[in-house]
Design brief:
Blueprint lengths: L8 H7 L4 H13 L4 H21 L9 H11 L13 H19 L6 H17 L3 H22 L8 H12 L4 H20 L28 H9 L6 H16 L3 H5 L6 E2 L4 E4 L8 E4 L2 H13 L23 H14 L11 H12 L4 H8 L5 H4 L6 H7 L10
Antiparallel strand pairs: 1-2, 2-3
Helix pairs in contact: 3-5, 4-5, 6-7, 7-9, 11-13, 11-15
């Protein structure tokens, strides 16, 4: 089988030095994900290159793969590489192939013993999931703020979490707040409050419950987002080449944001099982608010979805609506893929960078619904918010409508 991908005698010689079971598993994975023969060849050559380099610098553990070693291989070795010319040298493909090898082979064969700190955060993550009930993206945010606090303690004060005091926590919050927006400060204080409360509950720090974290006085400002104009939205939708399969997919993804105000993560997670084509109803799986959400499908979005599913979507067993058209072919797209498609559409439509935020679609839809006379409660339902307060930041005052209902200024003092 290997002769299909490697024909160079020098590479074949190096290839046969690798563990046969591991290389077979790696190649089978690439084939199952429909990677092209050319890509498989470059990936195998990259693995041979990396492991050959490792043997030259550390014969005691040549198969070791860590993020630090991968970075050293890519940024240092490849620049001054004097290995055989048959070894693949593309930085991007070398990095992707070695990281994939690590995921498929190394991490399966070697399960490192977590440090006490890593074990603490694993237990905290499980607590956030099973007790607090947070979704993955919310847990990641809280874990990040907890790790940042831990790193600051070690670097600035040479202390462990068990030695944390309320005074030190307050000092960190004030210092960190100087580089954050008002909304991020609120998120950080909430995350740290949860984290330190957890530490206190398991007797890992001496700060007593309940915990109050002093914070800078928040400054409330009118939201800076402005709605996208009809011209801008039309330019974005027209920027896609709908004669191609990928163009049909990306156009349908953007229609989800334009017509329904979906988040990028919800768009990536759309399932064929959640679409009632006959009654034009879309059912979203639980996300941030952990509740199932049903929405009517506007005609323009329905047409875009039908066009993609019938004429563009590759044959696959995956039930995701939007899937990859290149390796890994047929698997559900990531949130990053949705964001990338929209960012490129903004650029093609020549939308100003300061107006090219993905969330602007939600702001635009909410603001226009408000202008059309839709109640805030109905808008909150469309956006998937449990609280009306959460929807207020998506909407902006309609000055023209206010002028129509404004009362004349009383002429006081006139006789």
């Amino acid at each position: 089988m290997i002769s299909t991908y490697i024909k160079c005698p020098e590479l074949l010689f190096e290839y046969h030095k690798l563990p046969e079971a591991d290389t077979k598993k790696y190649i089978d994975y690439l084939i199952s994900r429909r990677y092209s023969s050319k890509t498989i060849t470059s990936y195998i050559s990259s693995i041979i290159h990396y492991l050959s380099w490792r043997k030259s610098v550390d014969k005691s553990d040549p198969i070791k793969i860590t993020n630090k070693l991968i970075s050293s291989f890519l940024s240092r070795h490849l620049k001054t590489c004097k290995c055989p010319s048959s070894f693949h040298r593309g930085r991007t493909s070398c990095g992707a192939s070695v990281r994939l090898w690590r995921k498929i082979i190394s991490e399966v064969n070697f399960i490192p013993t977590p440090t006490k700190e890593e074990q603490l955060f694993e237990e905290y993550n499980e607590y956030l999931k099973s007790v607090v009930g947070l979704v993955k993206i919310s847990r990641q945010t809280r874990l990040r703020y907890g790790r940042e606090l831990t790193k600051w303690l070690k670097k600035k004060l040479s202390k462990e979490l068990s030695e944390l005091t309320l005074k030190e926590l307050a000092a960190y919050v004030y210092q960190r707040s100087s580089s954050l927006s008002s909304g991020s400060v609120t998120a950080m204080v909430s995350a740290l409050g949860c984290f330190v409360s957890y530490l206190s509950s398991i007797k890992h720090c001496n700060i007593p419950l309940p915990i109050y974290i002093p914070r800078p006085k928040p400054v409330y400002a009118i939201p800076v987002y402005e709605e996208l104009s009809e011209y801008e939205i039309l330019a974005i939708l027209k920027s896609f080449d709908r004669s191609t399969a990928i163009g049909k997919r990306d156009h349908a993804m953007v229609c989800c944001l334009v017509e329904l105000g979906l988040r990028a993560c919800d768009t990536a997670r759309l399932s064929l099982d959640g679409i009632d084509w006959r009654h034009q109803v879309l059912t979203l799986e639980p996300s941030k608010n952990r509740r199932q959400h049903r929405l009517p499908i506007p005609t323009q979005l329905l047409d875009a979805l039908i066009d993609y599913v019938k004429n563009g979507r590759p044959i696959t067993t995956a039930r995701a609506v939007f899937v990859y058209h290149r390796a890994p072919l047929g698997l559900a797209v990531s949130t990053g893929t949705v964001r990338g498609a929209i960012r490129r559409a903004f650029m093609r439509a020549k939308i100003s960078p300061n107006r090219s935020q993905l969330h602007r679609f939600r702001h635009t839809m909410a603001t226009r619904l408000l202008k059309s006379g839709t109640s805030i409660k109905a808008i909150a339902d469309v956006l998937g918010h449990q609280s009306i307060e959460a929807s207020n930041r998506y909407m902006h005052v309609d000055i023209n409508s206010l002028k129509e209902v404004a009362l004349p200024w009383p002429h006081g003092g006139e006789s």
